[in-house]
Amino acid sequence: MEKVKKKIGSFSFWNWVTASIIFRLILIYFPKNLNLSSRPEVSTPLTSFRRLAEGYWLKQSFMSPYAGSMYHGSPLLLSLLGPLTINRIEGQPNHLLYSLVSVIADVVSAMLIRATGQNLRLAYLRSLESLDLVKQIEVSGDIAALIYLCNPFTIVACVGLSTSPIENMAVILCLYGACSRLIPLAAFGWVIATHLSLYPAILIIPVIFLLGCGPDSPPRKLFLQRHQQKEVLNQSKLPPRFSWGPVIHFAFWAFLWSVYVLVLCGISLKQFGGLWEMFKSTYGFILTVEDLSPNIGVLWYFFAEVFEFFRNFFLIVFHVNILFMILPLAIRLRHRPCYLAFVYVAICSMLKSYPSVGDSALYLGLLGWFVNELADMQFSLFLFCGYVGVSLLSPVMHNLWIWRGTGNANFYFATAMVYACLQIVLVVEGVSAMLNHDRKLRNLITGKPQDAKS
Amino acid sequence: MVLLQRPHILLLLIDTHQFLQCWIAFGSANEEGQQQEEFSEELLVKPLPDHKLLAHFHFQSSAPPSTSNGCHHHLFPKAISQLVQKFRVKEMELSFTQGRWNYESWGGFDPISSSNAKPPGVELWAVFDVPQHHIDASWKNLTHTLSGLFCASINFLESTATYSTPEWSFPPASGNVRYGTFPCEAVCTENLTPWLRLLPCRDKAGIALLLDRPSLYRGFYHSQRLHLTSTESSSEGIDSGIILEQTLTVVLQPNSERAIEVHASEKHVQPSWSLSSIFGKQVSGRCVLAKSSSVYLLLDWGLVAELKFPNKENGKSAANGLTSENFWSNPSFELSVNPDRIFLEESSSHSKSLSILYMFQVEKYSESEPFDIGLMWKVPVAWLCQQTPLHASRFFMGSGNERGAIAISLKSTQFTEGFMSANSKDGSCELRVDVFQVVPWYVKVYFHSLRVFVDQQPRAVSDFIEKIHVSPSKDKMSPGVMEVVLKLPCRVNTAALTIEFDKGFLRIDEYPPDANQGFDIPSAIISFPNFHASMVFLEDDSLNRSPLLSKFQHNQMHSVCTILWIIAQCAAKACC
Description:
heterodimer; A: mainly alpha; B: alpha+beta; 2 domains; disordered C terminus; signal (chain B); PIG-T (chain B); GPI transamidase component PIG-T (chain B); GPI transamidase subunit PIG-U (chain A); endoplasmic reticulum (chain A)
């Protein structure tokens, strides 16, 4: 019976995957294209396809791709994706090849999410078994992969030709590698993700936890309590202690990959400004928020208005904001490194300088891993409606302001602010739901009444 | 979907051929000229086909090398010579312009229009004779000095975001040139007064007496230009000191009440005018410090072809009888003063007719007998001015405040066909067009989106663009520069270049005052380097030299297109 159910489940999973791919292809073939590539929600100065094409054109004309302030991406992307910006097939839509690369990246990411989800589920089942709490767990990998593939945000980012599918793939590759203990792969993903968009650098903390103590499990304290109750201390059933071996291994590989990436970048920028110019116009551009064109974040509005005198101060404040949250969350969620990674990704996409819907697509996909743990999350309907509402209102407000001239910046900024608030609620509620879930497990073990909500 | 958002403008200015043969003999007269400062004043008047009148004032001062007589100057403005010495300016041109040159009716293929039709606002370019790394500092100081000298906001050109370094398409091709424009500068009498102060007689005597402010600023086009060339510091050995050329070009509407009364029904009747009716003043003798002081009246060959000169059919024989009365008393018009000399164009590429130049010496007149020429039309006459090979216009496409495209469109004019056939003897006739466009940094141009349309068909960029040089804009740092050399087939009807851009968002304190008026994009300069028709006037008196006419000999040819671009970038305007 269960086998049949599983078969049906897996069948419909592949159906959904095919459907989402076909839907993407239809959108790519949509007559006269949808102009998604110039939407501020999709293409930020960092992920814009047109800027990539401009950088490639400059490079082809023997100029530094960073001459002018158009391109702010990686030189490796230029070499890999640049030729696709001008190659076209007769009779096919422009940029078909580039779109296909995005679709492939999305599918690969979804498959990696699925595999990681299955890993997590197995590990979690094992640890629940060792706590004697056998529970039916949903196949979170499939759900997460489907959320990622069918999320309108992912579809828009993919069809809008932004580079975020590739950045997301690098992040997922890193987490997948860490969960499956493929250390070189994890290091590669981490280095590439950091190279492409800087913010995934903080994922090094969850990755270290993943490698050091294995994937998500209930707090280690519970195991000890459980064994004290049973008065049998079975070391084999305890989750492993933190081991430094894989971490050092990871550090070594990360170093190796970074050197490799830097050497490649150095070669491709040899006749131009070199690496210093690259750092200045990629990381420097991210950190100094030079481009004030409106996006779905909140920083553009703030920095368009702040006095020049205070600009540096607030730049530090906003970026340190991310760093401040790293440590407390790492301590509180150290037993759930994948969840910690999700929270970090969500915080980054909320506070980064040039956010796009591609970033939301990533953390919403990762959220699918934790459907079992977060089943009791509050405000989930409110959040869902909020996301739907914002994604419908934001283009309307942008149109009113920029195209019709009947609105003003505040119209659009209001939706950006609501969006930021929704993400804050999501993170806060998500973290507290996860902590409640841990408490619930503890209560199950210690036998206290379930409703004791401290 | 392409929307034409704003009406714009097309101006086109072309370079000229040599207009008049220069009378300067670089012989004994030049040696004498090295020793003393000279000043000459001239005025050229030319009727325009659309019932308007072009007046072109030309004042030239020259100073010998400073080594010959120290820092003292008798006629030459000291402020200018100090400026040249301090910033080591090799060549410089500053123009203040109001209004747009109407290339269709006022012509674009003669020396006056090609060197004096300037982009609206302030345009400044300078060539420095200093090491590369000092040029920017010199430019900054120069802009501030000129700003003080001419009471204008030229000092805004000091910021690196406003000036550019043309590589090769700008006329004085050299790495030391800096080019900046300030299109929204309002030009008025406060800029003219300091300009006049550089003249030895100011506007108190001589031809400058005609510069009556209300009449000048009532005109349709007004461009005051200051051009200086210095060989002070050149290492080439030829040291001719500083030559300062000040020109003022105005297009005015003659007061034609009488003409309207007489021929109210007649559309083509040209208004009769006199200097006193246009400017409200008369010339009471020359400026005593001037070496030469003369007024010219130029009749275009197009106009001459329409007029019935008695022996028009035989131009050459007419030239022999230059002083004969039949050139200035004519059934079609009448001059109030007898010209002192008449020059006939020696040869002309179009060979339909020959232009005529009347010369009047102001020296003969005095306060008791002021100089005033008038032209009285007897019969209606209509003619066309000589046009540029291609008519250029630039416009802005798209709507909304997010993105758009700039299009530069070139349309062939009928006048060029004659030239084309003349130039295409070898069969492979190509028309070379240089386009120079500067865009401010907040117009974020995507150079990869450059498209070429020839005869309204999209064509491969590499087929028509021979050379391209771009320097992309850096946010708040430098403007974007695009220099393109187009090779078009002569038979081309229309050609267009389009390039897409995004509109950048400005910080609240980066908006110019009155931002709702829009942002001006500096003019595109379109030049036709291969066009060299010549217009040589018969002249046997080599001692008589006119700086005005000789100056037009080696003019650079450009076309200027300007758009006033309305963009209400309202980011971050709210809630403050």
